[in-house]
Every structure is written in structure tokens, then in C-alpha cells.
Amino acid sequence: MSLEEMKDLHLEEKYLQPETKEVNGILMTKMISDNWDKIWNFQAKPDDLLIATYAKAGTTWTQEIVDMIQNDGDLQKCQRANTFDRHPFIEWALPPPLSSGLDLANKMPSPRTLKTHLPVQMLPPSFWKENAKIIYVARNAKDCLVSYYHFSRMNKMVPDPGSWEEYVETFKAGKVLWGSWYDHVKGWWHAKDQHRILYLFYEDMKEDPRREIRKILKFLEKEVSEEVLDKIIHHTSFEVMKENPMANYTTLPTSIMDHSISPFMRRGMPGDWKNYFTVAQNEDFDKDYERKMAGSTLTFRTAL
Ligand code: PPS
């Protein structure tokens, strides 16, 4: 649906800078909250593949890698649609007649690849029951925060982040959509020992994409030639994806995502947080981080 058609339907006020409403103590858009029963009762299938992440952790990157693998490196096939249409975002609810993630997923023939940002305790239970494969990608908190801040400035479908200083506190308190980063990464880390979950790190993918893509291949029980692997690495590099309209979210109207404020494909590297945190903010952040992550075996690299 074009922006003009959306305007005709007067839908904009319903989805731009949306109201929020908690579900089980986790901040969500009001649309997600209002549709929560349907989302919770989503029927997963055994051959579904779910890409689960905290927002801004490398979801789109992983989606492109997986799609390239599933299509044996066929670039044309991976150009068939926007990322968000290739892989339904299961909890993303929009007012009709716009398609919600559930509608897209229910219409999609199997095998499906799906996306979620849900914290582990809120994943529809059918995923566990059907033993669907899940790839979880985690990214260090500081880079996630910076990326989420800029994304919230340019994307009118999520709440306004306020000033940088305000946002640092909002993020630490977990009062952002999909809740606390700390609980999210720890919750999924714990779950990986009980379920078919491949837990990856953004920083590892950046350091050695070949090694990490091989892990995904093994998990998906797929094999590709070295030539195809090279092609996948190239096509899913930040520089190439930044120019790929089917992956960089530039096909959305600027009233939804305004890339002149900040591009979706922004910096694409670990350590960019150093350009934003003051020394004092960093010290405070580290102290709070120690408290929130105490007792966890999960460790992150904040630079390469
Ligand atoms: S979303 O909206 O939650 O689905 O966003 P998500 O895709 O998880 O995260 C967006 C950030 O990932 C960066 N990105 C990449 N980094 C490295 N390589 C590749 N290929 C790549 N593709 C996307 C993107 O630039 C966002 O991070 P920042 O730090 O803002 O640049």
C-alpha cells in the first residue's frame, strides 16, 4: 500500500508515534498489546525457523544471511521482496487493512522464516511445543542502545526517544519497546541450553562472518560451495546491504522511516558507542551493568 493510499485511509495517526501499553510488565505498542491473545496463540510449525533478537542487534543482517543460504546464494530470489515481507515479524500488529506480522505468517507457505523481538518468556508457546529452530543474535548493550536511539529518532512507528541523556536512562530502566536488554539477552541465553537455539553475537559476525555463517549452515543442516559462501559474505556485508533497497528499509515512506534523520543502515560496527557516551555516562552505565548482569556467564565485547 502506498503512502497516498494510507493517507486516504487516515491511518497515519493510528500507527505513527504509537501509544504504548505494557504486556506482562514489558512495554509494547498498544496495537501489540491489544492483539496479545492472538499473538500468544500463534501456531508455529516444526519446520519454521525463527530469528529472535533484541531490537537493533543484527536482525536484518541475519535475515539476509539466512535468506541467501536458503536460496543457495541466488541474488535474484533474495530480491523478491522487502526483508519485512520475506520474513514476517510475528508480533508486529498494524491497523487493518495493513498486514500484521501474524497475517503475513499465516498466509505464508512453509517452510517459513519468521522474526521476533519478544523476550523469551513471551514467545508463543507453540514454538517450544513444535521444537522449531531458533537463531538468537545478541549485540553488546552500548551499541544496541546507540542504534536503538537513532532508530527511534527516524522511525515514527516507535516512541520518540527524547534527548540522548534521557534515552540512556530509559534504556537502562528497560522502558523501551520489548523491555530490558539485560533480561532479554540473559533470558534467551538461559533458554539455549534447553531448546534448539543457536546463540550468536553481532561482534563475532563482524569479526569473522565466514566462521559465523558456517555455524548457521551447520544449524540449518545446509551445505553450500566455497564460491556460494563467498557470495553470501559479500552480499550480506554492511556496505552492500546499505545499498540494497530490499534490505535497507528505504522502500517505506519517509513519513514512517526518515533516513535523512538517520539511515536504518547507520554505522554497522562494534564500538560506535564511544562516539556518544560521555566518560561519566560510561562509568554509570558500567556500574549499573555489573549489577544487572551479576551472576550471568554471558559476556560481550564492546569493541573489536
Ligand atoms: S531491527 O529494526 O531491530 O530489525 O534492527 P536490526 O536489523 O536488528 O539492527 C540494525 C543494526 O544492524 C546494523 N546492520 C549491520 N551491521 C553489520 N553488517 C550488516 N550487514 C548489517 N546490516 C544491518 C545496522 O546498521 C544497525 O546498526 P547501527 O549500529 O545502527 O548501524
Automatic annotation (TrEMBL):
Keywords: Cytoplasm, Transferase
One Gene Ontology MF term: alcohol sulfotransferase activity
InterPro entries: P-loop_NTPase, Sulfotransferase_dom
KW Transferase (keyword) present: yes
Enzyme class, spelled out: transferase
Start and end residues of each Sulfotransferase domain: 46-296
Compartments where found: Cytoplasm
One Pfam family per UniProt: Sulfotransfer_1
Family: Belongs to the sulfotransferase 1 family.
Protein name: Sulfotransferase
Species for this entry: Bos indicus x Bos taurus (Hybrid cattle)
Lineage start: Eukaryota, Metazoa, Chordata, Craniata, Vertebrata
Gene encoding the protein: LOC113901255
